[in-house]
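Example 3.2
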Amino acid sequence: MLKVGVIGLGEVSQLMHLPLLHDLQDRYKITAVSDVSKSLVAFIQDKYNVPEGFLDFRELIEKSDTDAIWVLSPDQYHGEAIALALKRGKHVFVEKPAALASKELETIIALQKEYPAQVVMVGFMRRFTNSFLKAKEIMTNQPKATRYLRFRDIICEGSFYIRQTRPTFRSDDIPQEVLEEGGKRRRAHLEEALGKDASDHARKIYQMFTGLGSHSFSAVRELFGLPKRVLSVAAKGENVVVLLDYGDFLGTYELVNDQDVVQFDAAIEIFQGDRKIHIKNETPYIRHQPATLLVTESEQHETKTTHYGPDYTDPFQTELKYFFQCVKDKTQPKTTLEDSLQDLRLFEEIIHKLEEGVRNG
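Structure, written as tokens:
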């Protein structure tokens, strides 16, 4: 059993990781938690019977009796928490993005090489859905040339679902100086990633990619690798379209983050001539939502669609079981820091392409 310290007790922590760690009591025991809100720390300690609570994540890493650290804090603190945990001999699970800037992540990757016995895993839960894994299996065992790729995140924000299902504890006691320091740190990391001259709009779009978009890009990258080129990027408000060149085929990505229609259209569609593979994901804010894989095939003008699923396995739980097995087997996961670095570099390239298009009219 791994003794776990959880850093960051916000929405994702309360809805996904804390209840799942608690469910997996044969593998994990939550022994310490940390957040900048004193009331939130007290609430979580009481709810999950956690013996140690800290207001500073550095103290949790330095002083708590833990084997592994869950880094669920705001993105701008991820890198520091990972580095300190490595130096203190802890395994690390960090929610995406592992860092906000590729340069910072490169530094952390170099540090991890000094601690090869410690497992570090980045949370890309869509790569652990059974629908995604089945699609990959089909593409591996029955390969066909891809002619076109379309993937997207067209969503209604999570607050709609949370209000009706599992409300989270929201604190009002975070010190103003802590909020200001966090904002300054985030700004500095975004400037490192995009340059000091990047527009506020570009910074916002970049954070939409490192947040919501990273799940889709990471999954597509596992199937196809990185695109050869970013051909073009267009953005209006919080709506973005990216055209990608994968060498033998084109790909488009759509991100629509400001619509009020209640849907969660997070899909990957792979067009292969006489076969189409459609991986569909539901909102992660409600546990055990069905994941579905549709495979449509045509032969001599006859078309059939095979439905795989619906599958109700929780991908967050799957990846937590996978992390435990990696620690047990002393192996690194497929979602490493190096793996995550590829997305950050691509997102930086996408934003530079967007800014270039804006400058050129």
